[in-house]
Amino acid sequence: MQELKGLNEMLVPIDVSKYFHKATIVGPRGEVLEDPFEIDIYQEGLQKLLEKVKQNRNGSGSKIIFAMEPTSYYHEMLMEQLGKLGHEIQLINPCHTARVRRLDYDHIKTDDIDLKVLTRAVELGKGRVVAPKDQDIQRLRYITRQRLRRGKFIKRLKTQVHYHLDAIWPGFVNRYDRTKGLVRNIWESKMAWAIMQICPNPKKVAKMLPRQLIELFRRHNVSGVGPFRAKKIIAHAQTVIQKACYFPEIRNNLRQDLQLLHHLNTIVSDLENKAVKALPQEAALLTSIKGISPFFAAAFIAEIESISKFATPKQLIKYTGLSISIKKSGLYESSHNHFNKVGNRHLRFVVMMMARSVARCHPDFQAWFERFKKRGLKDRSAIGCVATKLLKTIHHLLTKKVEYSSMEFNKKR
């Protein structure tokens, strides 16, 4: 093994897992001071680790470096406890450890080899020193991630509601022809919600008179349904009665999905309010860009923690996973390059959502989007180009602490 960078440094690589961790202690010259040993995830395991380090330190005052690979959430508690004690902690990107394992150990993976791989990665300078995290930022990150997870689940649940509704009321939703169907978007229509909750069975609706249907809606506090709309609903129910699916299980599933959807919307609204209340001051600069909501501004700040971590916009783009992968060999150069997607996936999702919004709402970014569409790019690729431009703009705003201006947008960076 090579010597560590400093002559007075001890390295403690830790292979993290769910129920126990494995560690070893390496001296300043690369010698193994302590053979691999196991520690549990409780306080006893932490005390055992610190005692082993203290025994091998022998009062020499050597600096201790703890190195580990981020593994789900299993490393977070150990990292937090060691950080409180003032120790330096280095995180090794799994891509770097995989590369070292492939080159030095021929893809062999055991706990002992993982420790050697971590040691080698630190020697190569692949470790990233982790600073103690701000508790407010950690709380904001937890809130925003929970909101985004529930948002994805709501999207899948809405698809399921559409499936059930098509089985019961064929042609209920028609986005393309106003003369057919009852609504174009069921999520923006109070009448559609009322029909799904109150009378999901078109058989009963087809036998009603317009005044009976209006009275039914009024009893459930649904306004805006007059004689004309009531006649249209009844006429549609009479046309689909022969081909509609009347399995009671489908109607029950529809009611349950709507109740769950209502519950999730309440949770999402509550999480968004909490995120906006904890909004950092820097987020106000992001909301100066038309199309970026306070929630997504808060989510962005929570993921990057501080813009000072990124000296250039390219570093921020790479951390997001939106840098372009280039394939080139000899005279061959690929013309179909793509985003490498190696980075913070939560941040990438937030940035892509913001890019879609600004491409739709902001004139400058809309023109940027159309520019790449004219080059023949598909919508998703063009949105990716908008996202990289947006990241460059945000880096400028947060670094200079200025609000958005179209003049700065058109400058090349």
Task: Give the SSE layout.
Elements: E1 9-15, E2 20-26, E3 32-40, H1 43-57, E4 63-68, H2 74-84, E5 88-92, H3 94-104, H4 111-123, E6 127-129, H5 135-168, H6 190-198, H7 202-206, H8 210-219, H9 227-240, H10 248-277, H11 283-286, H12 294-304, H13 313-320, E7 328-329, E8 332-333, H14 345-361, H15 363-374, H16 379-400, H17 406-409
Parallel strand pairs: 1-4, 4-5
Antiparallel strand pairs: 1-2, 2-3, 5-6, 7-8
Helix pairs in contact: 3-4, 5-10, 5-12, 8-9, 10-12, 12-14, 13-16, 14-15, 14-16, 15-16
Provide key terms for this protein.
8 strands, alpha/beta, 413 residues, elongated, two-stranded antiparallel ribbon, six-stranded mixed beta sheet
Helix content: 55-70%
Distance between the termini: 42 Å
Shape: elongated
What's the rounded overall pLDDT mean? 85
Could you walk me through the main structural features you see in this protein, from its secondary elements to its overall organization?
The protein is an alpha/beta fold and 413 residues long. Helix content is 56%, strand content 10%. The strands form two sheets. A six-stranded mixed β-sheet has the order 3-2-1-4-5-6, with helices on both faces. A two-stranded antiparallel sheet has the order 7-8. Strand 4, helix 2 (74-84) and strand 5 form a beta-alpha-beta unit. Helix 10 (248-277) crosses helix 12 (294-304) and helix 14 packs across helix 15. The two termini are 42 Å apart. The model has no long low-confidence stretch (mean pLDDT 85).
